[in-house]
């Protein structure tokens, strides 16, 4: 889902370069965003290289006339397309000086066609007031593609001047259209105080698909920070997100986010109605196993109730012994959750996991795997003492004593 949205954004950028309607390039939807971007870069380089001599001649002529005259010529004779092309060939300080005499509308028209790679020095020198005027014009037009394309080339000072012109919903759209996705973290760090407003806008305008796409291009720390902010919102906001994730089948985007959330956020997530739907939990399990997100699922599992854990366990225990053994090894010691999952089911499935635990010498020590007093179901363990392999039971006795649970240790010992 997220990949397709990024592909569509890249097609729109390519269409802008070619001067065609994006609908004419729909045949490219089977290509990856990176492939389309690479082709766009080649096209831009070819087009710029072809006109380089002409741009140099125009730039040389611009140097010979006073700045107000050059501005008048640019606006009345050259037009925005040629002015944008010439901007990269003129000495940056002079280009900015000429731009100061141009109208915000004309500057915005030229900015649409500006190549940030060839005009980086000019962009870096743009005065704050000019940046604010152009940003306001582009945002009024809803031209997030241009804003996103240029944002990465803007120094912090220019961005600080431009961002106040954008509403919370606009910032989300600019983030989705960034030329360089690595700039998303930089942008979010500059608008941290506005993230709650962005979340509210996502909910009010049902833009969760856009939000999920943005989560897909930022790093783990920023994802977790945004997820924690979402988790602090009203129930209906959080339910809106989870419903959208379910409808879009975007658990592969949300699970890595949940893995880094604070405990209070995970607890709220686990309690929401969507997370009590057996079909949802089975799908979450399927995706975690199929896409290598097992360790991202486990932090959430600790906060699920017994019925929820049972749904996860039934799916996980459908794996063969070799796969299940690999999952157990992955879960230790960072995420010791396998035993609670085993205890969520009865009979042969539980005995199977306990037998696997008993026979696994490659873990070194099962004490880490079995968990601490915070997330091991001690009462259940005591109730099934007779089912536990001797080695597992002895290790649990040690773990209980370590946690100061002397009565539990005594009950687990059961004359061992």
Helix content: 55-70%
Q: Look at the structure and give the mean pLDDT.
A: 77
The percentage of residues in β strands lies in under 5%
Main sheet summary: none
Structural class: mainly alpha
**Gap between N and C termini, in Å?**
54 Å
Poorly predicted segments = 363-369, 371-376
Shape: elongated
Oligomer: single chain
Tally of DSSP helical segments: 28
Strand segment count: 0
Order of helices and strands: HHHHHHHHHHHHHHHHHHHHHHHHHHHH
Integer-rounded radius of gyration: 29 Å
Question: Nutshell version of this structure?
Answer:
This protein is 70% helix and 0% strand. The chain is mostly helical and 416 residues long.
Task: Describe the protein's architecture and organization.
- It is a single chain.
- The protein is mostly helical and 416 residues long.
- Helix content is 70%, strand content 0%.
- It is built from 28 helices and no strands.
- It has helices spanning 2-18, 33-50, 52-62, 67-87, 92-99, 104-112, 120-124, 128-141, 144-151, 156-162, 168-176, 183-190, 195-204, 208-215, 220-231, 235-248, 251-259, 263-271, 278-290, 294-301, 306-316, 321-331, 338-343, 347-359, 366-370, 378-383, 390-402, 406-413.
- Helix 1 (2-18) packs across helix 14 (208-215) and helix 11 (168-176) packs across helix 14.
- The longest helix has 21 residues, at 67-87.
- The protein is elongated and about 90 Å long.
Q: What's the arrangement of secondary structure elements?
A:
Elements: H1 2-18, H2 33-50, H3 52-62, H4 67-87, H5 92-99, H6 104-112, H7 120-124, H8 128-141, H9 144-151, H10 156-162, H11 168-176, H12 183-190, H13 195-204, H14 208-215, H15 220-231, H16 235-248, H17 251-259, H18 263-271, H19 278-290, H20 294-301, H21 306-316, H22 321-331, H23 338-343, H24 347-359, H25 366-370, H26 378-383, H27 390-402, H28 406-413
